Amino acid sequence: MKNLNKALFFGLFALIVVVEIFVHLHDQQTISKLRTSLQEFRQLAEDTPNSAAHKISEFSNQKIHQVFEFFNSDADDSQQQTDVDYEVPMELLASETQFLETRQCESEKNVFFLKTSKTGSQTLMAIMQRFGIQNNLTFFLGESMNGAMSNLQMPITYERDCWIGKNIPEEKFQISTQHLKYNKEVIDNVMEPGTKFFSIIRDPTTNFVSSYRYYQYLLGRLWSQFGLREIGETKGASSELLYKEMEHFLEDEKRAWRYLKNVSPASFARIGTLRPQLIFFGSFTDVNGKEWMSYDRDIPEEVLQAWFKKLDADFEFVMIMEYYDLGLALLVNEFCWSIEDVAYLKVNAQAHSGLELSKKAVRNLEKINYPDYALYRYFNETFWEKVDSIGRAKVEAIAELIGTKSAEIAQRCIQDEYLNNNGTQKIKPRLKEGVYEDAECGRFLMHGPSMTKVTQRYMIDHFGKKYKSCSRSATPTTWSENMEKNKESLRYKYKFLSGHGGRFT
Ligand SMILES: *[C@@H]1O[C@H](CO)[C@@H](O)[C@H](O)[C@H]1NC(C)=O
Ligand SMILES: *[C@@H]1O[C@H](CO)[C@@H](O)[C@H](O)[C@H]1NC(C)=O
Ligand SMILES: *[C@@H]1O[C@H](CO)[C@@H](O)[C@H](O)[C@H]1NC(C)=O
């Protein structure tokens, strides 16, 4: 048994290492094959409780999760935002432009962005990273390929989690933008005093659908119970099949809970489906000292309201994905950031499946995930209160300026082939000829893990000799090897992106 354990463990470890190496070669076919074997291992582990595979999987769950996240974090999830057409008069735009140019305020440099999932947060993360690099700020980052922390269902803690610079507690961070589950105590401790908090959420129905479709390869523990597809078919299911599964899951509330009960709270099959938004907001301790988790089945309404009130006190505002540009306008207004700071590359809408959940399925989803719906209602209200307190016309004018500036930068920097695409083809955005030495263009284009690695290397260099890795394994992890092996190119990229010369590579 012991030998089997060892063999399995080394097999898995080797697999993860190989996977991580291949990720850098960008060989899609190999990646997809490796991903399938990793998924099969995981499935085997989940389907045979108490087996060696099961134990190893539990142990390396976090690692596997990081690898999976890494595979997918390049994809942008903002395509489903609604475009609102504002009718902003020219005079207002002119006066707002003048106001922004002449206002007397200092831009906020200490910002904690609680990244949620399938909410357009990838674009926001890129905006934050760009701002941090341009302003030479310090980043709060996990020691993993995608920089995420507290990957499981639990809020971030000192005991469980690891980040760059954890061994130097007197050093405080200025920007936080990676995935983690909120824990005010830890965030207050690691970030600069007076750091401003914000986040983003989305309509819980479309969020659930988006999460189910996107993370289907991680939800095997759930859909394998439905009996609608083969265990091996972990991804690439047709939209029809995915909707069939969601309909089945949501057909009967009591049965849905039975399905959920068979899945461990740490499994992504639950994290990605059971209140997939509230889970990022950590936990809440009520007046009786009871700690509530997002996945507790019956959270009383008054507990939820008290929880939201507390979040409302901690956070400056919570953006609503359906009003994306208005939310960015709040950022400009509240943090005294410039229009250029929040300009972003619009991502082409993906082909819509044309399918929708039935009314009955939505009703049951509203019952199962009622805390997410309550969260959305609460922060939709505070969002509009904030907008109205500033003045709706003013916020719309700023939003319009953001849209215009974004289009302007895109025209200057990004190849027409991408900009003119009507969404029928999958085209990667690339820089135009002749702008490779333009740092603004480089920053505008760069997204995701490649940007994260640049900031990770920067932070390791920032701490210099004082830095000690807190990764658990005794031998160097693939992440730290990657940081070492690619240090010259990562430093070059940072220098270029921060506007100190060089060219986009
Ligand atoms: C960036 O900040 C560090 C301190 O955190 C400082 O030593 C360095 O000189 C700054 N670099 C630039 C280009 O401003
Ligand atoms: C969000 O707030 C707006 C403005 O008050 C309102 O029109 C809309 O119906 C709200 N949406 C939800 C889901 O509560
Ligand atoms: C999208 O663009 C392609 C190629 O340019 C074209 O063939 C197709 O008809 C367009 N589709 C729509 C819906 O406009």
Q: How would you explain this protein's 3D organization?
A:
This protein has helices at 2-25, 28-47, 52-72, 90-102, 121-134, 184-190, 204-214, 220-223, 239-249, 253-261, 268-271, 301-314, 324-335, 339-342, 359-368, 370-390, 392-413, 416-419, 439-445, 448-463, 478-485, 487-497; strands spanning 111-114, 139-140, 175-176, 196-201, 283-285, 291-293, 317-320. The protein contains 22 helices and seven strands. With 505 residues, it is mostly helical. Helix 15 crosses helix 16 and helix 17 packs across helix 19 (439-445). It starts with a helix and ends in an 8-residue tail after the last helix. It is globular and about 60 Å long. Helix content is 53%, strand content 5%. It folds into two domains: 90-203 and 280-497, no CATH class; 216-271, no CATH class. Mean pLDDT is 85; it is low at 23-27 and 66-84. A hairpin with a 5-residue loop joins strand 5 and strand 6. The strands form two sheets. The chain has a five-stranded parallel sheet with strand order 2-3-1-4-7. Residues 422, 424 line the site of one 2-acetamido-2-deoxy-beta-D-glucopyranose. One of its GO terms (biological process) is glycolipid biosynthetic process. InterPro entries: Gal-3-0_sulfotransfrase, P-loop_NTPase. It is a single-pass type II membrane protein. Belongs to the galactose-3-O-sulfotransferase family. It holds the Pfam family Gal-3-0_sulfotr.
